Each structure stands twice: as structure tokens, then as C-alpha cells.
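explain this chain.
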Amino acid sequence: MAIAFYTDNIQFPKQFKKRQTTQWIKEFILGNGKKTGEITYVFCDDAFILELNRHYLQHTYYTDIITFDYSAGDKLSGDIFISLETVQSNAEKYKTDFANELRRVIIHGILHLCGYKDKTRAEKRIMREKENESLRFFADKFQTIPTKSIPNA
């Protein structure tokens, strides 16, 4: 199936490598015993994601990602919205580079589609471990500089 990337009122990040990212996501999904369905990423700004948060989740705060899950059985499908502005802020906060933080958020959405949650402290710890594992896999596969692990929340 397909993984697509779009933007809304923002430009694609210069560091973004669509082919590598797509391959990484598909291999990650397969490695988790799932199949790739229709997955759409939309990179947007803070204003857009805040409006989604208000409209669909009744939240009045900014976030880096919102995932709408349409998965059926083992086939992962969904719409994943990522605020590039918040990703940049988080990269600065956690002292990591933007590309690494973007990959973390990209795989975070896939983890939600795989059924992982992040509401409790224990769930957040598991989610962070899975993100870090996935980022190490990306670094090994594409010979990039290993990413800095972000401590568990």
C-alpha cells in the first residue's frame, strides 16, 4: 500500500528524505508484525494543528502530532498531522537536531497506529523506548549519526 507526505501552509523540511523515510516506516511496520495500509502524513504549522486539536479532540493546546487511526486488523492506516514548528521547538528543548526529532515524531504516529498509548507514565516509557529503538534502526540502516535518546517521561 502507500505512504504519502503532504504539507499544509508550510514547506517540506530540507532535511526530509522521502524515499528513506518511507522504506524505514514500512520495515518498522513489518517488524512489528503489521502490514502497511494507506498512511498519510501532513506537515503543518502550529495554527493548523491547534485547530485540529480543538475541533476533533477538544484540546486547547499545541502539540507536535495528532494521529487519526483508521487501521483494520493488522493493516495500519491513518492520517498523521505533524507541526513542524513544534518539532523545531522540541529539537531545541531536547538539544537534538531537527531531522532526528522529526523522525521521532514520524515513528511516534506509527506506534500509535500499532496500538501503543502514551497517557500514563508507564505507557510513555514504553513509547519512548520504542521510539529510541526505531531511531537506532534508522541510524544503522542509513548510516547516519546515531540519534540522542530522549529520557523517559
Remarks:
- Strands lie at 3-7, 35-44, 65-69, 75-83.
- Residues 121-142 form the longest helix (22 residues).
